[in-house]
Every structure is written in C-alpha cells, then in structure tokens.
Amino acid sequence: MGVTEAVTPPPSPHDPPHPPPAAERADRPGQNHTGQHPEQPNPERAHPEKSEPGPVSEPDGPGGTADGITAADIRDGAAVTLVVGVTGVLLGLLWAWLAPRAQYVSNGEAVFLRDTESEARIGADGTFFLLALGFGVLSAVAVFLWRRRGGVPLVIGLTLGACFASLAGWRLGLLLGPSANLPAAAAAAGKGVPFDAPLQLLAHGVLLVWPMTAVALHLGLTALGSPREPLPAEEWETYPPPHVHVDLTKDAPRD
C-alpha cells in the first residue's frame, strides 16, 4: 500500500497573504505577537502642556495703559494744572495795580466820565492782554524745562490751568479794583470830585490769550527740543554695502 503525500497547491495571486507562523513572528524584533509594530510613545501626547510658546506681551510699566500714558504722567498733568491755576492770583494783583484808571465825576444828580476821550478803559484790556501773554510764555517755558519729553497729560494740564488762571485773575482784579457801586462811590467822593471808575474787561476774548500762548509755545518747544528716539541700527556697517559694487573683472575670461 503506497503512502500519498499531501501536496499544497501554490497560492493564488488573488488570495490574501497568510500571516507567518508564531515562531517566526516571535523571532522578528520590533513586533508584538500580533505582527504589528508597537506604538511608539508620542512626546507631544505624553506632555500635552508643552506647546509652542506664543507671543508674550510686555507690561506697560507700573500704572501704564495701552496708549503709553502712565500714572506718573497723570500726576504731572495734575500738578501743572494746580500750579498754573494758582498763578492766576498774581495776574489779578498785577492787573489791578498796573491797569490805567478811568475817572468819573458827579454833579450831585448823575455820574459822568471826567474825560470822554480817555483811553483808560481800553488800556485796561491791553494791560490784561500783555500780562496774560507774558504769563503764557513763562508757564510754557517752565513746564518744558520741567518735563522735556512733553506728553498729552502735560498739555491738558497746562490748558486747564491757564484757563482757570485767566478767569481767577480777571475776577480777582475786579474785586481788588475800585468799587463797582457808583452811587456809593460818588456820594463818598462828593460833588464835583473825580473818583476812579471800576475795572472792566470789555474784550472778553483776552481771557484766551494765556492758554493759547502757553499751549502753542509748549508744543513748539517740545517738537524742537524734546529727546529724539534712537534711529534703528544700519544693516551694513560700511556704505555702500559689498554687493552693490561687484568687480566683474575677476570672473571675466582671459584671452
């Protein structure tokens, strides 16, 4: 009786590949028992908190805001407003002292100007104008010498302080000048005796002379004399850069 040997037919190209035996799979390094490569650890998955660093915004400084105005700048502007506003007292004192005086005279029944062609009333406006102009120049120069860098808070403080100083000087000058009660002043002086007329500011536009002069001069001084920002460093140390002028004779063919 003969022994027949089982013949395995060759695999068809259309059949799926058969997995290798378990012993052969065990001998292959880098594979597990299923024949697949073990999953490599992902460092990004192991440390999810580590990511690409984003742009870090630098702080604006103590008390700073997005537009660059700090708490120190606001304090400087408030100090300028206070100091300039108090200076209006000096304006009122000088105006009451230096302004020319018109005179009235009474006939016992009415009060008339002693000299109808007198320019003393207009002179009072001119005196206030010149004093306000001088104080505007002095305040602008003083603020610039104190803080050369300038800034919006200083300009606002100078404007508010100068406006308040003009109003305070005007009202104080009227208070320190002759009495505005003409009947009482005529009765105290007597019939036919001239007496000083009260101070009057006919052109109220001169109240803006101080703030306008101070702000305009301060802005001009800041634009001309404030410290400049350093220019960016040049890309090349020498001028012109080396690639501008190329010696073409080096690579030219020699005859």
What features would you describe in this structure?
The protein is mainly alpha-helical. It is built from eight helices and three strands; from the N terminus they run H-H-H-H-E-E-H-H-H-E-H. The protein has helices at residues 22-27, 43-46, 71-86, 88-98, 120-146, 152-176, 182-189, 209-225; strands spanning 103-106, 111-113, 195-196. A three-stranded antiparallel beta sheet has the order 2-1-3, covered by helices on one side. Strand 1 and strand 2 (111-113) form a beta hairpin. Helix 3 (71-86) runs parallel beside helix 6 and helix 5 (120-146) packs antiparallel against helix 6. It starts with 21 loop residues before the first helix and ends in a 30-residue tail after the last helix.
Keyphrases for this structure?
elongated, 4% strand, 255 residues, mainly alpha, 8 helices, 3 strands
Dominant shape: elongated
Strand content: under 5%
Number of E-state strands: 3
Q: How much helix is in the residues?
A: 40-55%
Rg from alpha-carbon coordinates: 46 Å
Mean pLDDT: 75
How do the strands line up in the largest sheet? Answer: 2-1-3
Spatial separation of the terminal alpha carbons: 99 Å
Count of helix runs: 8
Query: Sheet with the most strands?
Result: 3 strands, antiparallel
Order of helix and strand elements from N to C terminus:
HHHHEEHHHEH
Structural class assignment:
mainly alpha
Low-confidence stretches: 54-66
Secondary-structure map:
Elements: H1 22-27, H2 43-46, H3 71-86, H4 88-98, E1 103-106, E2 111-113, H5 120-146, H6 152-176, H7 182-189, E3 195-196, H8 209-225
Antiparallel strand pairs: 1-2, 1-3
Helix pairs in contact: 3-6, 4-5, 4-6, 5-6, 5-8, 6-8
